[in-house]
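Tokens for chain A. Residues wanted.
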């Protein structure tokens, strides 16, 4: 008797066991198993098809967060671009403010102009107006931009706000600056009024709202044919005899020293003292007419300008000198420029200027005139070099003497420039091309020479110089 054998198809429990007791039974069982395997494979294929549908549905469901994530990546990338551009514009505007001077409105105008120039409206994102707060030497800035989203709107996020901030620290250098201003007779009327306004504008720019500055000193030297050093400086005029001025008194003007000490910053010990200004009574200047302030119009002090202001950090002192200016006398620009240099100098006779090699101080002088150097052809005329007939300029020729004055002005300017003093020059309604050339050559370079054909131009020039001096003081 043959034994019974069980045949199994692994993994298919529903097929069960098949018994075979003979070879035919085994064959039939094999055929039956083949048909059954075909049906199984077909079922598996159908299952596979059904599984692909399930994966597709699952993938479709997964696409929603994937799309949102991709959209966020795109929109956040765009936001980063906006932030970078916004930050660049804010930094540029902050640096511009940091190197500027003025009141709050003027600095806000600088901020807005530079911000808009570096972040125009056509850029990605719509920027808001930047804000600024100045605390001591620090400028705190902030700006925001609204960015319309590209794909994040699908989940209700339609805008992204991008915000940036910046802090600029201003390091302020010291500034010693002297204004040498033409107070000659040709400046009378609206011209002297315009000069006062323009000079005060520069003072306002440099001092700002400070009544007393920490690192700023200013001086003013009004000039005509001489300069008034002030009655307190009698030590510089040892030959002064007040009796010579009766019925008036010496008001502070001095003559020029002899060449070359009239173009050099030398002390009394090295270059000698000054002689007091004294216009003798003659047909051009009748002393009997001297009464009180008329001593500035007639008498021994005729055409002596107002007293100069040596370097000071008090705004009121500078403004007071400017506002007191009056127009009278003839033009010796070199004399005014030389006294401006002496005021700016750390050496005697005035010693409150910073050292020329002080890396923390900028030194500058502004020389302004409405005409060319002039000397009267009359022997009764008078100025810092006496009368033309005295020959103190080495000639009694009017044109030659005026050429000497021009040459000495250029010597004064060269002396200052050799010491790294920044020399600004201004011509105001000057018709002579030769005079403009002399003043242009006096300046440190052509960019520091300004011609002002009108009263309005003069105001703009002083404001431009004030802004430039502020930029020289402030670094970032």
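Reply:
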């Amino acid at each position: 008797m043959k034994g019974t054998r069980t045949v199994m198809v692994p993994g298919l429990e529903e097929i069960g066991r098949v018994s075979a007791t003979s070879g035919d039974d085994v064959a039939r069982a094999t055929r039956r198993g083949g048909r059954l395997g075909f049906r199984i494979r077909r079922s598996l294929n159908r299952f596979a098809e059904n599984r692909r549908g399930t994966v597709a549905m699952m993938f479709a469901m997964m696409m929603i967060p994937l799309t949102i994530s991709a959209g966020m990546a795109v929109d956040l990338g765009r936001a980063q671009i906006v932030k970078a551009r916004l930050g660049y514009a804010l930094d540029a505007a902050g640096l511009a403010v940091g190197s500027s001077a003025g009141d709050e409105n003027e600095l806000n105008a600088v901020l807005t102009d530079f911000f808009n120039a570096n972040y125009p409206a056509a850029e990605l994102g719509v920027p808001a107006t930047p804000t600024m707060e100045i605390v001591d030497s620090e400028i705190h800035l902030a700006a925001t931009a609204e960015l319309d989203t590209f794909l994040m709107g699908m989940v209700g996020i339609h805008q992204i706000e991008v915000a940036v901030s910046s802090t600029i620290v201003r390091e302020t250098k010291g500034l010693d600056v002297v204004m040498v201003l033409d107070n000659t007779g040709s400046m009378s009327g609206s011209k002297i009024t315009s000069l006062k306004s323009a000079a005060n504008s520069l003072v306002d720019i440099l001092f700002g709202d400070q009544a007393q500055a920490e690192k700023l000193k200013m001086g003013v030297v009004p000039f005509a044919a001489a300069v008034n050093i002030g009655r307190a400086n009698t030590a510089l005029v040892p030959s002064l005899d007040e009796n010579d001025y009766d019925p008036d008194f010496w008001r502070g003007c001095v003559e020029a020293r002899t060449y070359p000490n009239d173009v050099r910053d030398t002390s009394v010990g090295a270059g000698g003292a000054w002689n007091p200004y004294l216009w003798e009574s003659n047909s051009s200047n009748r002393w009997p007419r001297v009464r009180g302030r008329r001593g500035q119009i007639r008498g021994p002090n005729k055409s002596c300008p107002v007293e100069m202001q040596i370097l000071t950090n008090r705004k009121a002192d500078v403004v007071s000198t400017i506002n007191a200016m009056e127009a009278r006398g003839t033009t010796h620009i070199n004399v005014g420029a030389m006294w401006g240099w002496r005021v700016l100098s750390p050496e005697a006779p005035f010693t409150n200027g910073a050292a020329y090699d002080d890396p923390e101080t900028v030194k500058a002088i502004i020389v302004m005139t409405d005409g060319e150097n002039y000397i009267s052809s009359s022997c009764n005329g008078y100025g810092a070099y006496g009368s033309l007939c005295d020959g103190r300029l080495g000639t009694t020729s009017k044109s030659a003497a005026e050429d000497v004055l021009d040459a000495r002005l250029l010597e004064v300017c060269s002396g200052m420039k050799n010491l790294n003093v920044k020399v600004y020059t201004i011509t105001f309604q000057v018709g002579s091309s030769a005079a403009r050339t002399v003043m242009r050559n006096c300046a440190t370079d052509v960019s520091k020479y300004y011609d002002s054909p009108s009263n309005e131009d003069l105001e703009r020039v002083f404001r431009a110089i004030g802004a430039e001096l502020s930029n020289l003081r402030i670094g970032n």
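Residues 81-169 form a domain with the Pantoate--beta-alanine Ligase; Chain: A,domain 2 fold (CATH 3.30.1300). The chain has two domains: 81-169, 174-475.
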